[in-house]
Design a protein that fits this description.
porphobilinogen synthase activity, two-stranded antiparallel sheet, TIM Barrel, 11 helices, metal-binding, zinc, 12 strands, alpha/beta
């Protein structure tokens, strides 16, 4: 008999032969910035997550920077919303001002601008609408314009999450034409029409005013289509590709990591986060143990970048483990 237990006897021995490792530099922390002043507003459906006005950002971005986490993915929540989501691509919009503020305080922190109209439209959809139809091609120039204004504000990377066909190519062309050929694009390549997004929509005020997003986000029943979407984003110019949500789609992550020699990101989304938090608050699970197990699963499946609301907690736990040995 082969004795597998020989290599499980002590913590140091288990560490020595561990196949999968996490580093705080793998993490990106999502951040919500809201128009207004003196606002640190808890998101009820996401314990431990807040909406911050720009003047209250210092403590959270300092914490992210000092933790060693690579950067943030920033979402803006404007005062003004309209049918065209005009604040999304306003050079003085909420997210553009927040990016300038963050980069002024921590130039080395990677700031990734989420590119989508849903937080900025009065109908809550990710693109322009005609009646109850979400318009694809008409939306692309606005997404490209948003990408340019966020990069001009100082964003290090843009991440189109809209799921409009051709978005990556449109953004790449416009960035290149404006002298930003070195700015990378992280495509929300395989983004599924998931029930796990509900807490985010509460946090960002982005729930659709009619219907749902299944006409542009992916069908959860499809895996091969996800690989095709990823391949298409790569061909259009994406530098990093993403699978979202993470836990329910680790099969897609694994297939993508074995098919493409590209950085693979996962988004450990709001619903995945909130379920863990809710169960932990009830005392039903060990939060630290479950979070780390989930993060290792994402990394083991092939994710090289993990976008997660657990990032700050995980960074603290990893530091405690390291210092305790």
């Amino acid at each position: 008999m082969y004795r597998f237990r020989r290599l499980r006897q002590t913590e140091r021995l288990r560490d020595l032969v561990a196949e999968t490792r996490l580093d705080v530099r793998d993490f990106i922390y999502p951040l919500f910035v809201i128009d207004g002043v003196n606002i640190t507003e808890p998101v009820d459906s996401m314990p431990g997550v807040y909406r911050y006005s720009i003047d209250r950002l210092d403590s959270i971005i300092d914490e992210v920077y000092e933790s060693g986490i690579s950067g943030i993915l920033i979402f803006g929540i404007p005062k003004h919303k309209d049918a065209k989501g005009s604040d999304a691509y306003n050079p003085d919009g909420i997210v553009q001002r927040a990016i300038r503020y963050i980069k002024d305080r921590h130039p080395g922190l990677i700031v990734i601008a989420d590119i989508c109209l849903c937080e900025y439209t009065d109908h809550g959809h990710c693109g322009l609408i005609s009646g109850r139809t979400i318009l694809n091609d008409e939306t692309l120039p606005l997404l490209a314009q948003m990408a340019v204004t966020t990069v001009q504000a100082g964003a290090d990377m843009v991440a189109p999450s809209d799921m409009m066909d051709g978005d990556v190519e449109s953004i790449r062309d416009v960035l290149d034409a404006n002298g930003y050929s070195n700015v990378p694009i992280m495509g929300y390549s395989a983004k599924y029409a998931s029930g796990y997004y509900s807490p985010f929509r509460n946090a960002a005020g982005s729930a659709p005013g009619f219907g749902d997003r299944r006409s542009y986000q992916m069908d959860p029943r499809n895996g091969v289509e996800g690989i095709r979407e990823i391949q298409n984003d790569i061909e259009m110019g994406a530098d990093i590709v993403m699978v979202k949500p993470a836990l329910a789609y680790l099969d897609v992550v694994k297939e993508a990591s074995e098919t493409f020699d590209y950085p693979i990101a996962v988004y450990n989304v709001s619903g995945e986060y909130s379920m863990v938090k809710a169960a932990a608050e009830k005392g039903w699970i060990d939060e630290k143990r479950i979070v780390m197990e989930n993060l290792y699963a994402m990394r083991r499946a092939g994710a090289s970048i993990i976008i997660t609301y657990h990032a700050l907690d995980a960074a603290k736990w990893m530091k405690e483990i390291h210092e305790g040995r």
